[in-house]
Design brief:
37% helix; single chain; two-stranded antiparallel ribbon; 12 strands; eight-stranded mixed sheet
């Protein structure tokens, strides 16, 4: 059998992108992740099960060199440290890496926050390109938030997405690049999650297939012919698996999970069944160590009584189709309390009384009592919302308290959010569950790991598209070599020189 295609995952996080690439048939050559917490999850799932915490902590410490860590397949340091380690770069180039993939940190240009083009984190994508230039992989994937494709109009600058596309085209041997805007729900994840990617093929690979990149961004939901303009899917773009008619829902994702584990209901969704059973992505030695039938990362968080009542209010608003912003009216201290009460009453006009949350839980018996409850429990936090069983999850974020269970007065567990991301239950998250606001700048706990991850199902679809192009390139390469008398197919480690000669 031919050797599997190899990949490097930069800014790997907990490993969502790697998981999808493994499911597509790629084999890990190296991952780089600076956070010891996120790297711990990656190590536990892709390198070896952690049974001795002190041993992992020693491995992940600054005392362990880049070369020592790279031998295990995971470097727990800044990418700059890897770029400074020439032996590792030379080894990877000599091996002929097929794919370099990753999502450089995006806070500097994310639409979710204050977008500053001078943010130092915006420089990290350029380190990514420096790595590509050093290793010269056959294919490249750069993944990021949709805001990366927006112009910095305030500062009169072009988007980082366009900057990266042009820079990748000119990096090292040069790449043909296809920009895409994908939504995870079109690839089998029960979540609305738009992301942008740059998919690049090295010029010699692209030339052999006569593939040319494009400035136009292909958008995954444009495969609907009732939406104009209809764009044909580029060869290197992933094929969608779910259209509007079969988008998965919150119920598909988590309705089979009880407060204590798995439901014994005979009827569960195909998605839930897959999440329960899939271990195919695991290295064989980790499969042996995996404890089947045990649901990890499903610890329910405890909430005070008034917080549970507030969650019931959010659920009630969702059922009544009333905007959640009514929760903020009681906090409008610039107007008198009587005026605030009137605004709340007006927002609730026509709502059902008695006010009931799911499972017929009575919140208030009268409108006056309901307004009183809102006045007591109002909050400035507008990001909280109750989920609907019949709709996909909104974009999973790194904060644990933004989304409320459709039925119960609680936030979601790590496992439930991981289901929305399409992580199988066999994938175990490590480190602490969450952390305080002051520690968020330096710590990457489980909830953050999940929220920052690439949905594996979307990553798998992208990996399959790239893999198909690499397989065709390999086939054409073999046919070209066979057509020359005396030539033999070269092993994978020698593909580099062969391709250069053929390109010339």
């Amino acid at each position: 059998m031919p050797a599997p295609f190899t990949y490097v995952d930069l800014f790997a996080g907990c490993g969502g992108l790697s998981l999808g690439l493994e499911q597509a048939g790629f084999k890990l050559a190296l991952a780089v992740e600076k956070s010891p917490m996120a790297a711990e999850t990656f190590f536990h799932n892709f390198i070896d099960r952690i049974t001795d915490q002190s041993a992992y902590d020693s491995f992940a410490s600054d005392a362990t060199t880049v070369e020592e860590q790279a031998k295990r397949g995971l470097v727990v340091k800044e990418l700059a440290a890897v770029l400074a380690c020439k032996p590792v770069l030379q080894r990877l180039k000599a091996e002929g890496i097929d794919l370099v993939a990753g999502g450089p940190p995006c806070q500097g240009f994310s639409l979710a926050g204050r977008r500053n083009p001078d943010d130092i984190r915006n420089k990290l994508p350029w380190q990514f390109l420096e790595f590509v230039e050093a290793v010269e992989p056959r294919a490249v994937i750069i993944e990021n938030v949709a805001g990366m494709n927006q112009n910095f109009k305030k500062h009169g600058r072009e988007s980082p997405f366009d900057q990266l596309r042009l820079a990748l085209m000119d990096t090292g041997p040069g790449y043909e690049v296809q920009p895409v805007r994908l939504n995870a729900m079109h690839f089998g994840a029960p979540q609305h999650r738009p992301r942008v990617m740059l998919l690049g093929l090295r010029k010699d690979v692209a030339d052999r297939r006569a593939f040319r990149g494009s400035e136009q961004v292909w958008i995954s939901d444009y495969n609907r012919r009732d939406r104009l303009p209809f764009q044909p899917r580029p060869e290197i773009a992933p094929a969608t698996t779910h259209l509007d008619k079969d988008i998965l829902t919150v119920a598909d994702a988590i309705k089979d999970l009880t407060r204590t584990g798995y439901s014994r209901r005979s009827s569960i969704s195909e998605f839930a069944k897959e999440m329960r059973e899939d271990t195919s992505w695991m290295p064989s030695h980790i499969q042996v160590a995996h404890k089947r039938g045990k649901l990890s990362n499903h610890t329910l968080r405890k909430h005070a009584n008034h917080i549970e009542t507030r969650f019931r209010l959010y659920q009630y608003l969702k059922v009544e189709d009333i905007p959640a912003k009514v929760m903020g009216i009681p906090k409008l201290i610039e107007i008198p309390e009587d005026a605030r009460r009137l605004k709340v009453a007006q927002a609730l006009e026509g709502a059902s009384i008695p006010a009931r949350a799911p499972v017929r839980t009575v919140i208030s018996q009268s409108m006056e009592e309901l307004v009183d409850t809102f006045m007591q429990l109002g909050t400035k936090k507008h990001s909280q919302r109750a989920l609907f069983w019949t709709k996909p999850s909104p974009t999973v974020v790194s904060l644990p308290d933004d989304y409320i269970h459709p039925l119960e007065p609680r936030t979601l567990t790590v496992r439930e959010l991981a289901r929305f991301q399409s992580f199988p239950d066999s994938f175990e998250f490590r480190a602490k569950e969450t952390t305080g606001s002051l520690r968020r700048r330096v710590e990457v706990p489980q909830y953050t790991q999940v929220g920052n991850a690439v949905p594996p199902k979307m990553a798998k679809a992208v990996g399959l598209a790239v893999k198909a192009m690499l397989e065709e390139n390999q086939s054409l390469q073999q046919k070209s070599a066979a057509s020359v008398p005396g030539e033999k197919h070269l092993p994978k480690s020698d593909r580099e020189s062969e391709q250069i000669e053929l390109h010339r």
